[in-house]
Amino acid sequence: MKKVFCGLLLLSIVFALFACNGTNPDTPTQPPSTGQGAAPLSVNDMLLIVGGTVFRLDDAIGLVTDALGTDYEFSESISCEYEGMDKIFAYEGVEFYTYPVGEKDFLHEIALTAPKYQTARGIAVGDSAERVAGAYGEDYDDQDGIWVYPADSGALWFYFTGDTVRSVSLSKDLQPVPPED
Question: What's the domain count of the chain?
Fold first, then answer.
């Protein structure tokens, strides 16, 4: 338990550092690659379906806890972008990052860390780069083994180890919290 708490604390610190780094998230580090592929991302791609419940960015965290219960690890840090605390609700295989608005917290990022959950187009941790390209196309920004598919409402990030997806992030930012190695 102490090890999990320390890991979540470290993740919170990293989250705070990246949220406060002062970089312009609208400036990609490399130009997007060109290529053929699937339809561009839409608002319907920026969601996660768990047990028949749809979670979208900007949903209240209460929707998550009502659907998934209270069996999560919790951490928080002072928000650099909003008044209040940024919070992380880490369930087995999926993490929900929030931002505060008044007394409520809303989804800022959803990170998939296990094959138990899938994207709207059926991609899960453990899938191949070829399968990702088949589902989302080849028009992505390749950032040293991280494929970024921008959308009007944020971006979809695929983190790879070799040719295999190790985590997926749906984020309102173009620079989400990096996954732990």
Answer: 1
Strand stretches in 92-153, DSSP E: 94-101, 104-112, 141-142, 146-151
| Residue 114 domain boundaries | 2-21+36-171
Region for 89 from its dihedrals, namely left if φ exceeds 0, alpha if ψ lies in -120 to 50, beta otherwise: beta
Which residue from 180, 158, 157 is spatially nearest to 9, judged by alpha carbons? 180
CATH assignment of the domain containing 10: 2.60.460
- The structure tokens listed for 102 are 């008044």
69 Rama sector, left if φ>0, alpha if ψ -120 to 50, beta otherwise? left
In order of 47, 78, 99, 107, the CA distances from 117 in angstroms are: 11, 29, 22, 17
Rounded Cα–Cα distance for residues 68 and 144 (Å):
34
What is the average pLDDT across 130-144?
Answer: 94
pTM: 0.74
* 126 inside domain: yes
For 66-75, what is each residue's pLDDT tens digit? 999 999 999 9
Is residue 27 in some structural domain?
Answer: no
Rounded to 5°, the CA angle 169-149-13 comes to 35
In a domain, 181, yes or no: no
